[in-house]
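ok so I'm stuck.
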Amino acid sequence: MLKAELVVAADQESAMAFAGGQSSISKPVMMLDGDSHKALLYGAFQTKTPLKQCDKIKNCPRKFKDGQATYIADGGLGLFPFGVVDTRFSERGRQGRLIQLISQSKSIMGYGIDERTALMIGIDDSREIPLRMEVIGENGVSIFDLSEVEKDKGFENSILSVRSHYLTDEDKLFLETTK
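replied:
not stuck anymore, here's the structure
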């Protein structure tokens, strides 16, 4: 039996472009920009193009706030259909923006990859649990599961009951998927 393998790698923000495609695990969107503080204050803003420095050239959309988290709803390249990807994660304190974006976009899973760290993905449909993830590198990967998320009706951007995991070098995660 011929077995095909594909190796795809990206560094820093370009890894966020891997998101997209269809999966039973999540509805992946592509993170573009923003910071945690503004994401928690104003939510995430859906756009078709990056809005960096739109305030300087005075072409920002009406409801957009500078620094607000932005995303593309249709995802990026479609190579990682298992959730939203964010990079330089712990170093830049991006937990709030990733959790807010997962919640607002109705995704389920999010992966925050730290600098000098990789999240290796293996898919083998012949196994009982076909999706395997492994962390390699100096730091770690934060994984957020919002499958049982709750909202506080009194606060517009509140998010409760988020499961989180932090995996470091050689840690593995196995996920069941259905097509």
